[in-house]
Amino acid sequence: MRKGIVILGIFVADAAFRASRQPKIGETILGSGFALGPGGKGSNQAVAAARAGAPVTFITRLGVDAFADMALSLWKDAGIAVLAEQDPASYTGAAYIFLDENSGNNAIIVAPGAAADVSPADLEAHRDAISSASIFVTQLEQPLEAAVRGLEIAKQAGVTTILNPAPARALDRSVLALCDYLTPNESEAEILTGLPVTTVDEAKLAADRLMEMGAGAVIITLGDKGALYRTTTASVHVPVFSAGKVVDTTGAGDAFNGGFAAALAEGMDPIDAVRFGAVLAGISVTRAGTAPAMPSRAEIDALITASRDR
């Protein structure tokens, strides 16, 4: 019997700087805040899914250093099963995050470290874990070849596949054809299709193009405009679920993807799973940080109940 979620991705230590603007080249400015915490898209998604109640296994690579200790402690606390090689000759990933203190928006530089060496062989080594899962999730922070091999193994085994194409890059039709669900944000959808995505109607056109290019169902996350779920037979715009003042949008996409995967693994239909992911993301942006901002299942259920009662 299939169960749980396998996620391929990277961990990075997030060094988040809060300021009124980014400095220019050669300029130094004073910031208003700093925080060091766990991040990385795959790791964030794993934490989001696990806290939402899903059994999660995470595949990655780490160095042997303090940031690796941070990662292993995070995953232990979240109840995540870890399949992670540690390379003493490399380092655990790190990210610079600029947070606009006025809007909460962000700009990010990621250095994957040891996770840049994740290879198709790593996915082959964990074929049994992938093949026995109900959901396989990956992004594009580790090498594309590894992501593709994971998707191929999952697809061959009849496992539902989710690709969050971030950071965005051109993808062949053969890669998109491996994706039961493709989950870009607006800018990623624009890069993949060459079409503008600034409105819901434009998102519909981009989703149609992505399906023509080989993807299965497409979910475009639209920031404060919610998310668009689109297939060849259905189109649903899911609005944002507000849980309070927006503090930090850095991990919102990861929160959504983790929640969406957890809901699918639980047996929810895709539209309800999109709503579940939107609720999880709506809570996460009211808190600072990425993985630390992911809510518990009780918090998610409480917001869903409150939204229904409005």
Automatic annotation (TrEMBL):
It comes from Rhizobium alvei. Its EC number is 2.7.1.15. One of its GO terms (molecular function) is ribokinase activity. The active site is at D254 (proton acceptor). This is Ribokinase. The keyword DNA-binding does not apply. Belongs to the carbohydrate kinase PfkB family. Ribokinase subfamily. Requires a divalent cation, most likely magnesium in vivo, as an electrophilic catalyst to aid phosphoryl group transfer. It is the chelate of the metal and the nucleotide that is the actual substrate. Residues 5-296 form the Carbohydrate kinase PfkB domain.
